Amino acid sequence: MRPFWNLFREPINSLTHWFGALKTLIILGVLLYLAGRFGVSPWPFLIFGLCTLSLYVSSATYHSFKGSPLVLERLRKMDHSAIFLMIAGSFTPLLLLATSGTLRAVLLIVVWTLALSGIGLKLWTMKMPRWISTLIYLGMGWMAVFIVPSLWTAQRWDVLFWLVLGGVIYTIGGIIYGTKRLNPVPGVFGFHEIWHLFVLGGSSAHFIMVLHLIPLKA
């Protein structure tokens, strides 16, 4: 077990997100199958799945790889940039399948503009304090409150439940990550590893949310 464990620079962070990548591939396959079966466009689900997959693969690669400081810095930029992709990708099926008109257009433009701006910022500098980055991620994610009235009016309690649950899970994990307050075994199982587990939980909730979106257009 020890030699296998030593293959990874940060074992728990690596393995949790390689698991997340595998889970995402399976769920993406399920989403695409159901979309085809019920006559729903596959594109919202493909965007959601690929953006989520980019987060897990870039994160797992960065935390697995043992390389030079320059290589690790580049991988870290990819890791942090992919968070913006996953947030925007999670919004996309929700907006395309559960909203319409001006609200849909405005939020799609705003969310993807923020995502691309965030990626540009991360590629330019990684010197931003952890708590500021965390606030940006959480603030962007909680823009979902603008979608709540549409879900409420349509009585989509199932979608609303999983949307909010995922947001709460991400928020709790983000607070732990941003403050470093919960750090039981630093370097082995600390705040960062706990954050990775919360990411798995939050994305799982949003996977279920997207599954519930499919009947809207069936």
User: Portion of residues in helices?
Assistant: over 70%
Give the helix/strand class: mainly alpha
Biggest sheet features: none
- Total count of strands: 0
**Overall mean pLDDT score?**
92
- Mass-distribution shape: globular
Q: How far is it from the N-terminal to the C-terminal residue, by CA?
A: 48 Å
List keywords for this structure.
218 residues, mainly alpha, 9 helices
Give a brief rundown of this model:
This protein is mainly α and about 220 residues long.
Protein architecture, described:
The protein has 218 residues and is mainly α. It has nine helices and no strands. It has helices spanning 2-5, 11-37, 43-64, 69-98, 101-124, 130-141, 148-153, 157-179, 191-213. Helix 2 (11-37) runs parallel beside helix 9. It starts with a helix and ends in a 5-residue tail after the last helix.
Topology at a glance:
Blueprint: H1 2-5, H2 11-37, H3 43-64, H4 69-98, H5 101-124, H6 130-141, H7 148-153, H8 157-179, H9 191-213
